Amino acid sequence: MGFLFYSAPHAQDRPQDEALVVGAKKFTESVILGEMAVQLIRRSGVAAKYQRELGGTRLLWKALLTGEIDLYPEYSGTLIHEIFAGLPIADLAQLDVVLANAGVHMTQQLGFNNTYILGMRKTHAADLGINKISDLIAHPELRLGFSNEFMQRGDGWPGLRGRYRLPHKNVRGLDHDLAYRGLASGALDVIDLYSTDAEIDYYRLRPLEDDLGHFPAYYAVYLYRAELAAHHPDIVAKLKQLEGRIDNAAMRGMNARVKIERQPEAAVAAAFLQEALALDAQIKPDTTFTRFIRNSREHLALVLLSLSAAILVAIPLGILSAKRQGAGRLILAITGVLQTIPSLALFVFMIPLLGIGAPPAIAALFLYSLLPIVRNTYSGLHDIPAAIRESAIAIGLPAGARLLKVELPLATRSILAGIKTSAVINVGTATLGALIGAGGYGQPILTGIRLDDMGLILEGAIPAAVLALLVQGMFDLIERFILPRSLRYC
After folding, report:
1. Which residue, among 78, 58, 68, 66, has the nearest Cα to 23 in the 3D structure?
2. pLDDT band at 413 (very low <50, low <70, confident <90, very high)
3. Which strand (E) or helix (H) includes residue 336?
4. Terminus of the chain with fewer CB atoms < 10 Å: N or C?
5. 87 exposed, middle or buried (CB, 10 Å; 0-12, 13-18, 19+)?
6. CA distance 459 to 457
């Protein structure tokens, strides 16, 4: 029984008096279930921090194993066919054993099965006579759009294509919430759905019958670390009160209240806890102003820390590049390669080293900010006319004095231009930090995309754009103060 030997990487226990961290994936249902857990923890008198919309399954699972989060909502089908793919897990009892060997426990199913299904617009499906997935075989011209995670999962598109022998070539990956817009606009013909999605009725979609039984059951559960059960058994007991309480209709209704009626996830979760468990949760309203202050504080921290570190490191590297030709080629090559790495990938690469939240985001932003400053420092020093260099040597200035009194002042404009470029790039790229729990202006953008709410998207996009302009203006003022008058109009 090979599944008995799965083990987790070593993780340090969090101090018992530290806030518990709840995670959630980047879709509405997970955010609602995570909010329920947060409210139950707080009713137990324990502080809770909510890392919502963290991204995909693998990120949350690794964060749970390493102790970055203490619990999060997950699905049995995802665990069996994605996390533990290839292990002989026949039922939930065997899954429980595998999880225990990883230092993780799970509740029993919460009561609903949110399995994958494929869907089309009802009118389009009726015109083509499509009612089940196997009917798609006769229509290879259809345009398929699946969530990015579905495109890679073993229980997603690769397995589905093999099981049904689907011939379609026009298949693209995109955000799950954006796929609905593509379907409604006619840009897509078939997308993947979750069976509890509120959009199925809203967009008048026809779920296609899984006539070959490809998709397994996806029973919702809470995963939590073994340390949580040992240190906070009362919290685990409260989570278990939700077992069997949420059926498909109830979950679909909660999703609809958030996505269609625009109710806050916290209020929807509180209303369910009141109805199902007679728990009166105190919800602190989250206004646009409080979100703006919180997001601004987080975004400024990301930008200031990463940009300051980049300036302190990049200017010396640029000086070294200008003074040592061999080292300069290597430094410029390395910083250039860093700049070519897709920014989101660079954020994710930092997670194994620094966990989730602000630290990996700051590290990624730091690396991404190096090239413009290094290159402009190098160019500013390298392009100083030879006659000026020779004059400085002729009057007997030592190398250090030549650098500080002649070369750096002459290169100041170029260096500041590099810093301004890095600052503007940094402000925009920092919005991606929300995907790994760093917050900032990316958080309302992420939520707005999920909820199809342009107001929330603008709530993050406009301040980010304004901040970029303010940062550029600030460095323009700095240039006026530190640049010698004789060089300002050169």
Report:
1. 68
2. confident
3. helix 325-340
4. C
5. middle
6. 5
Integer Cα distance of 370 and 126 in angstroms? 56
Measured CA to CA, the distance from residue 75 to residue 86 in angstroms comes to 17
State the Cα–Cα distance between residues 431 and 155, nearest whole angstrom. 31
Instruction: Please give the distance of CA 55 from its chain centroid, rounded to a whole number.
Output: 4
* DSSP alpha helix (H) spans, 66-111: 76-78, 92-101
Please enumerate in sequence order all residues whose Cβ is within 8 A of that of 199, keeping only pairs 6 or more positions apart, or say none. Answer: 180, 193, 205, 259
Distances (CA, A) of 57 to 20, 60, 63, 160, 453: 20, 5, 10, 19, 24
**Cα separation, 54 vs 61, whole angstroms:** 11
Task: Round to whole Å and give the CA distance between 440 and 427.
Answer: 10
Distance CA 176, CA 57 (A): 14
Residue 172 DSSP symbol = E
- The SS3 call for residue 119 is strand
Please provide the distance, in angstroms rounded to a whole number, between the alpha carbons at the two ends of the chain: 76
- Cα–chain center distance at 458: 18
Both tokens assigned to 75: 């699905």
Nearest CA among 427, 409, 413 for reference residue 472: 427
- Average pLDDT over every residue of 386-392: 81
CA dihedral of residues 138, 144, 147, 148 (deg, nearest 10): 100
2 within 8 A of 90, measured Cβ to Cβ = no
Closest CA to 431 of 354, 364, 490: 364
Residues 6 or more apart whose CB falls under 8 angstroms from that of 170 comprise 141, 142, 143, 144
Mean pLDDT for 238-254 is 94
> Which one, of 9, 52, 39, 40, lies nearest residue 451 by Cα?
52
CA distances in angstroms from 161 to 133, 154, 168, 218, 464, listed in the order given: 10, 10, 9, 20, 41
The confidence score (pLDDT) of residue 17 equals 62
Question: Which 8-state DSSP code applies to residue 464?
Answer: H
The residue count for the chain? 490
Closest CA relative to residue 431, chosen from 461, 452, 471: 461
Tell me the pLDDT tens digit for each residue of 112-152.
999 999 999 999 999 999 999 999 999 999 999 998 888 98
Element (H, E) at 37: helix 28-43
- The CA–CA distances, whole Å, from 277 to 40, 228, 239, 271 equal 11, 22, 11, 10
The amino acid at residue 424 is: V
Q: Is pLDDT of 450 > 90?
A: no
| Nearest by Cα to 425 from 472, 483, 475 | 472
What would you report as the CA-atom Rg of the chain, rounded to the nearest whole angstrom? Answer: 27
Average pLDDT of 362-378?
Answer: 95
As a whole number of angstroms, the distance between CA 33 and CA 25 comes to 10
